[in-house]
Inverse folding.
C-alpha cells in the first residue's frame, strides 16, 4: 500500500500557520482524516527565575498549537462526519517535576482540552484522544538523560526509557 505525502514547513506557534497547512492539505486531498498534535519544547527553570519568554514560548508551542491546528481541522472534519485527533501530552503534567511548571501546565492543558473536545466532537464522528508518554529517548531529553537516566529508569516498570516508536505505535492505533 503506497501513500503519497507532502511536507509543509510551518511555525506551530504562529496564528496563521495552522490555517495555511490545513488549506494545503485540503487542496491536495479534499479532506483531512487525521491530526496528530505533537509539538513540544522545553524551557525549564524554577518558576521564581523563569522569565515571561520561557513561559510563553512553551505555552504557545505546546498548548497553543493544539488549539490552532485543532480549530483549523474541526470544520472540515465535522463536514466529513469523520476524523481522528490525537494529542501528545506527557506524564509530566501528573508528576510536577521541579523546573517544569510551564511544560506541565501546557501538557495538563492539552489533557483537559482533549476531554472537552472528545465530548464536543464525538457525536460528529470525530474521536479525540491523548497519548501521555513518560520519558522518551529524544534529542529534547538528551541533556536530562546524561544526568539522571539511571534514576529515571528505576521508576519505570519496564526498566528502560521509552522510544519514539512506542509512541508512534500507540498513535497509529488511535488513528
Amino acid at each position: 500500500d503506497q501513500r503519497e505525502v507532502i511536507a509543509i514547513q510551518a511555525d506551530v506557534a504562529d496564528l496563521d500557520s495552522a490555517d495555511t497547512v490545513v488549506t494545503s492539505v485540503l487542496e491536495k486531498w479534499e479532506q483531512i482524516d487525521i491530526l496528530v498534535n505533537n509539538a513540544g519544547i522545553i524551557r525549564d527553570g524554577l518558576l521564581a527565575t523563569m522569565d515571561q519568554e520561557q513561559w510563553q514560548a512553551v505555552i504557545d508551542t505546546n498548548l497553543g498549537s493544539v488549539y490552532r491546528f485543532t480549530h483549523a481541522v474541526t470544520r472540515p472534519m465535522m463536514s466529513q462526519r469523520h476524523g481522528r485527533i490525537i494529542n501528545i501530552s506527557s506524564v509530566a503534567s501528573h508528576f510536577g517535576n521541579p523546573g517544569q511548571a510551564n511544560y506541565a501546565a501546557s501538557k495538563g492543558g492539552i489533557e483537559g482540552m482533549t476531554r472537552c473536545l472528545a465530548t464536543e466532537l464525538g457525536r460528529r464522528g470525530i474521536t479525540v484522544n491523548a497519548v501521555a508518554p513518560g520519558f522518551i529517548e529524544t534529542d529534547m531529553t538528551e541533556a536530562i538523560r546524561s544526568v539522571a537516566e539511571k534514576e529515571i529508569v528505576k521508576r519505570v516498570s519496564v526498566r528502560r526509557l521509552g522510544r519514539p516508536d512506542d509512541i508512534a505505535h500507540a498513535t497509529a492505533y488511535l488513528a
Remarks:
- The helical segments are 17-29, 52-80, 92-95, 101-122, 142-154, 164-174.
- The chain is about 55% helix and 10% strand.
- The longest strand covers residues 83-88.
- The radius of gyration is 17 Å.
